[in-house]
């Protein structure tokens, strides 16, 4: 199967494209819109059918079927709507709205550092939106009509970029990679509809939360060890830390080396505490 690493001249940045499986991925760890942070391994993200909506006025709007420059247009829904594909987007003109669907990244997979997924995905989507709006302006230059270019339902709330409707595929993540290839499922926020090594979230925000939680799980052992080192280096915190690690009587044996460095008064206190906690 073919893999391609393409360069987007419009964005002047690198991106990974047309990846068929995680095993074949030629990772360059380059993220559109930001520098890659080498704190945790990257996952791959594909924002598919990213949708934007704008108000649209049909004064001097002259739709034409067939090819007009780079645009291929046609009527649909019994002539009540006009749709055209060109410059990386699909535009559908409805009664008073324009729907813009991003087609630029249909087959492109972007490397996203899981620890900073929210920031990196936001920056990527902002890049996509900028290109979509530029292409929409080109559409209006060709066919006419007008808009204020304000994304509907987003006024004064730029944080809602992560709630934009789209199909958001993710792969190259430990849990996702462990799923059987032939497994399929669907929930209210995520699905695996095909026998492919990826899953699909219904909004970018779900991807960001999932990947950042994945990064925390990856860091959990290091975080636990750092907490232990800080606590055990402070005589006033040692006893508190050891107590926090004892959930069952057998945990005491596993903490033998830590208990041995306690002052005798703390050992006596710990002994009394253990007796009271686990007495039957």
Key structural traits:
8-stranded antiparallel sheet, 280 residues, elongated, single chain, 2 domains, 6-stranded antiparallel sheet, 7 helices, 34% helix
Describe the 3D structure.
With 280 residues, this protein is α+β, with helices and mostly antiparallel strands. It has two domains: 4-47 and 104-220, no CATH class; 234-278. The protein is 34% helix and 24% strand. The chain has helices at residues 117-143, 174-178, 204-232, 235-244, 251-254, 256-260, 264-278, and strands at residues 4-8, 13-17, 42-48, 51-55, 66-68, 71-76, 81-86, 89-93, 97-102, 108-113, 167-171, 185-186, 190-192, 199-201. The chain has an eight-stranded antiparallel β-sheet, covered by helices on one side. α1 (117-143) packs antiparallel against α3. The longest helix is centred in the C-terminal third of the chain and has 29 residues, at 204-232. It is elongated, with a radius of gyration of 27 Å. Mean pLDDT is 82; it is low at 1-39.
């Amino acid at each position: 199967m073919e893999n391609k690493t393409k360069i987007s001249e419009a964005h002047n940045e690198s991106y990974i494209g047309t990846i068929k499986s995680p095993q074949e991925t030629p990772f360059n760890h380059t993220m559109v819109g930001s520098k890659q942070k080498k704190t945790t391994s990257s996952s791959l993200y594909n924002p598919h059918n990213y949708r934007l909506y704008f108000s649209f006025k049909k004064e001097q709007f002259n739709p034409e079927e067939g090819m007009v420059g780079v645009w291929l247009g046609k009527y649909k829904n019994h002539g009540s709507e006009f749709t055209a594909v060109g410059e990386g987007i699909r535009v559908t003109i409805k009664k008073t709205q324009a729907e813009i669907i991003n087609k630029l990244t249909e087959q492109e997979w972007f490397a996203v550092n899981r620890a900073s997924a929210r920031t990196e995905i936001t920056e990527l989507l902002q890049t996509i939106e900028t290109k979509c709006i530029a292409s929409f302006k080109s559409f209006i230059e060709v066919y006419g009509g007008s808009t204020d270019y304000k994304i509907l339902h987003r006024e004064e709330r730029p944080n809602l970029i992560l709630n934009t409707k789209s199909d958001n595929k993710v792969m190259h993540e430990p849990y996702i990679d462990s799923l059987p290839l032939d497994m399929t499922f669907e929930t209210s926020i995520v699905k695996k509809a095909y026998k492919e090594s990826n899953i699909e979230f219904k909004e970018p925000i779900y991807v960001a939360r999932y990947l950042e939680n994945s990064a925390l799980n990856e860091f959990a052992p290091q975080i636990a060890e750092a907490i232990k080192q800080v606590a055990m280096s402070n005589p006033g915190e040692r006893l508190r830390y050891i107590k926090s690690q004892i959930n069952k009587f057998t945990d005491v044996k596993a903490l033998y080396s830590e208990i041995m460095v306690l002052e005798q008064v703390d050992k006596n206190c710990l002994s009394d505490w253990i007796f009271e906690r686990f007495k039957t």
